[in-house]
């Protein structure tokens, strides 16, 4: 008698075999979704499709044309967890929104532009350290957010935040921005995500997690530098503990 986990694995193998022999068969994966990719964003998404699948652990099958629109490009997503499906969807929409943010014509159906006024006191919080918060909101929502860089702001005061993307993606981004301004957003999580994205990108480029980060130092053997503030009353004890930790690695 198979337990539920074994049944799920067997179902996945059967579905995988069916899809290999029949391209129109249902993709393997308990959680599935279809995204119609706007024509102007197809090239950008295709360039990053392998990266999207690897980082989100989601299979993306590209279908050209639908009954309603033969020229449409449909991305069919399939995976075994809701979290992976959400991550894959957001990554795809992030690239779609990035292209649409520079598009001057009318946006495709289902996509929109919106502007939020950010109070001067909240601009730094919305951008975050090294832009970590605004990038995390883009990743978590799939919308594109643009605010004038500090050096390009002619005056102080409130700033305009431009949002572009699917209606659901823009709505999610607006909700997250309000969370930031109300002090409910986890900035530490945003910084961690920024570091994880940097490492993932470095590994995908063959850098084994070091990439550009290692190049910031003069010695290529140095992968990381840390600044430790030592209390003046306990310098010797901390030094001994640090040396012991290094020797034990």
Secondary structure elements and pairings:
Layout: H1 4-21, E1 31-37, H2 42-47, H3 49-56, E2 59-64, E3 73-79, H4 82-100, E4 111-118, H5 120-127, H6 132-141, E5 144-147, E6 159-166, H7 167-181, H8 187-204, H9 211-215, H10 235-248
Antiparallel strand pairs: 1-3, 2-3, 4-6, 5-6
Question: Describe it for me?
Answer:
With 249 residues, the protein is α+β, with helices and mostly antiparallel strands. The protein folds into two domains: 4-100, Ribosomal Protein S8, Chain: A, domain 1; 111-201, K Homology domain, type 1 (Ribosomal Protein S8, Chain: A, domain 1). It has ten helices and six strands. It has helices at residues 4-21, 42-47, 49-56, 82-100, 120-127, 132-141, 167-181, 187-204, 211-215, 235-248, and strands spanning 31-37, 59-64, 73-79, 111-118, 144-147, 159-166. The strands form two sheets. It has a three-stranded antiparallel sheet with strand order 1-3-2, covered by helices on one side. It has a three-stranded antiparallel sheet with strand order 4-6-5. It starts with a helix and ends with a helix.
């Amino acid at each position: 008698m198979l337990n539920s986990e074994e049944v799920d694995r067997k179902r996945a193998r059967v579905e995988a075999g069916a899809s290999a022999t029949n391209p129109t068969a249902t993709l393997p994966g308990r959680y599935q979704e279809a995204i119609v990719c706007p024509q102007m964003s197809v090239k950008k998404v295709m360039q990053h499709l392998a990266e999207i699948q690897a980082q989100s652990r989601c299979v993306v099958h590209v279908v050209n044309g639908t009954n309603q629109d033969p020229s449409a490009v449909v991305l069919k997503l399939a995976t075994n967890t809701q979290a992976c499906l959400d991550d894959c969807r957001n990554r795809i929409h992030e690239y779609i929104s990035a292209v649409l943010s520079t598009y001057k014509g009318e946006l495709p159906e289902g996509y929109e532009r919106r502007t939020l006024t950010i109070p001067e006191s909240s601009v730094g919080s919305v951008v975050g350290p090294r832009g970590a918060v605004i990038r995390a909101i883009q990743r978590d929502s799939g919308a594109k957010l643009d605010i004038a860089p500090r050096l390009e702001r002619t005056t102080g005061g409130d700033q305009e935040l431009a949002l572009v993307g699917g209606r659901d993606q823009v709505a999610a981004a607006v909700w997250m921005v309000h969370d930031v301004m109300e002090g409910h957003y986890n900035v530490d999580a945003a910084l961690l995500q920024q570091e994880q994205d940097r490492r993932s990108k470095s590994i995908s480029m063959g850098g084994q997690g070091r990439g550009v980060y290692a190049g910031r130092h003069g010695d290529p053997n140095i992968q990381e530098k840390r600044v430790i503030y030592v209390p003046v009353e306990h310098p010797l004890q901390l030094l001994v503990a640090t040396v012991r930790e290094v020797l034990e690695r």
